[in-house]
Write a structure and sequence with these properties.
Elements: H1 2-41, H2 45-96, E1 100-105, E2 110-117, E3 122-125, E4 140-141, E5 147-148, E6 184-189, E7 195-196, E8 207-212, E9 215-221, E10 227-232, E11 237-239
């Protein structure tokens, strides 16, 4: 029994020392792992500043391009909308066997379609339930930043000096066109879908010009009344 007691007494310190050594090894092994974890999950102030500077540089490069692209989309959309409205005016004139026109307010930068009401002898805004009403609804505005105009350009898409379509008249084109309305431009079609002036004579020089900070665009008519869309590239008009 004494021998067993002594053996246990002798082996006891060995076990304790082994456990202590194991704990020390585990402790030293865990320290680098905790430090590495901190390095993986954190960023230094210099790294954050570098990323921030890169973002600012990219934004400075991208914002002007995006802004210019947005302006191009806006003026292009207005040009297409007015061209489509001119085609609709031709169809309404033929379908109702009357006159129809696209009415442009140069001051308010709005436009809409009107049809000559033969029964009441007056212009009526298309799709307006009231007869003989003008400039009510539906009236479409140009996109923000777009206005009617052509700046200092000397030549239009047809080769002549640029000019907005003639001012709108209170009556229908023919013997009694009536008075004109200032700060307006109208392209009027007869029942055969030809563009006409206030005397009901077929013309092929009417155009509507739009401008914004990105450039100039125009909708010009041929003698048949078909609208064509143009973009000014800085030296000449290009059809698109």
């Amino acid at each position: 029994m004494n021998q067993t007691f002594d053996r246990d007494r002798i082996s006891q310190p060995d076990r304790e020392s082994q456990g202590s050594s194991l704990q020390k090894r585990r402790s030293w092994a865990a320290r680098p792992m905790r430090q590495d974890a901190c390095r993986v999950h954190g960023f230094s102030m210099i790294e954050l500043l570098i990323v921030l500077i890169c973002i600012i540089i990219l934004m400075a490069i991208a914002i002007p391009s995006v802004t210019g692209l947005a302006r191009s989309f806006r003026i292009g959309g207005d040009t297409r909308e007015i061209a489509a409205l001119l085609n609709l005016a031709r169809l309404r004139a033929a379908a109702d066997y009357t006159h129809a026109r696209v009415y442009v307010n140069l001051s308010a930068n709005t436009y809409h379609l009107e049809v000559w009401n033969k029964a009441s002898a007056c212009w009526q805004t298309f799709e307006d339930s009231n007869s003989c009403t003008q400039i009510t609804s539906p009236v479409a505005p140009l996109a923000p930043g777009d206005t009617f105009g052509f700046g200092s350009i000397a030549t239009g898409p047809t080769g002549a000096a640029p000019a907005q379509a003639p001012a709108c008249i209170s009556g229908v084109a023919g013997p009694s066109p009536g008075s004109t309305t200032s700060n307006t431009a109208c392209i009027e079609f007869n029942s055969r879908t030809y563009p006409v002036d206030s005397t009901n004579k077929v013309v092929a020089s009417d155009a509507i010009y739009i401008q914004n900070a990105e450039g100039y665009q125009a909708i010009a008519l041929s003698v048949s009344g078909q609208p064509a869309q143009y973009r000014y590239n800085g030296s000449a008009w290009v059809q698109f």
